[in-house]
Design goal:
CATH topology: Pnp Oxidase, Chain A
Radius of gyration: 16 Å
Largest sheet: 6 strands, antiparallel, barrel
Order of helices and strands: HEEEHEEHHEE
Number of domains: 1
Number of strands: 7
Length: about 150
């Protein structure tokens, strides 16, 4: 299996990512539920008032990681990324996000309910990764750190 396929498989298995944003030179990390499309863009759904949502509006550079459940006895595997993020405002983009996110994470009724909250509306966000780094001792024991650039 090629590196890209290992990354795609990891993105399908993982559902929670740790998202790093920055504002004024100060980093922040949070955990969000996510889904990936066939081009390995990452989507999450969050209240516009959350710190990470506000920071993406200021600075679109993000990084993050996903880790599947492991025990200390398991050979380490993890996926990191860097890229740019944006809130989705175009209806076609929102529908694309919903097509990969709904039912994988939350049912459509829950998503619609959260989007309609006047006191704290939720929006979809998209990350366009510029780099993935798979650290995988299972599939690449001799060289576990494998980098891949989606648009290279």
């Amino acid at each position: 299996m090629r590196l890209k396929q290992h990354i795609q498989q990891y993105l399908q298995e993982a559902k929670l990512m740790h998202l790093a944003t920055v504002s004024g030179g100060k980093p922040w990390v949070c955990s969000v539920w996510f889904a990936a499309d066939e081009d390995m863009n990452l989507y999450w759904f969050s209240a516009v008032t959350r710190r990470h949502s506000e920071e993406v509006a200021e600075d679109d550079h993000v990084a993050g990681s996903m880790c599947l459940p492991q025990t200390p006895e398991d050979k380490p595997r993890g996926l990191q990324f860097e890229g740019t993020a944006k809130m989705l405002t175009d209806e076609a983009d929102v529908q694309k996000a919903m097509s990969v996110y709904v039912d994988r994470i939350f049912p459509e009724e829950k998503v619609q309910e959260l989007m309609a909250r006047p006191e704290r509306p939720h929006k979809f966000y998209k990350i366009t990764p510029s780099l993935f780094v798979l650290f995988d001792v299972v599939n690449f024991p001799d060289n576990p750190r494998q980098g891949w650039k989606p648009n290279a």
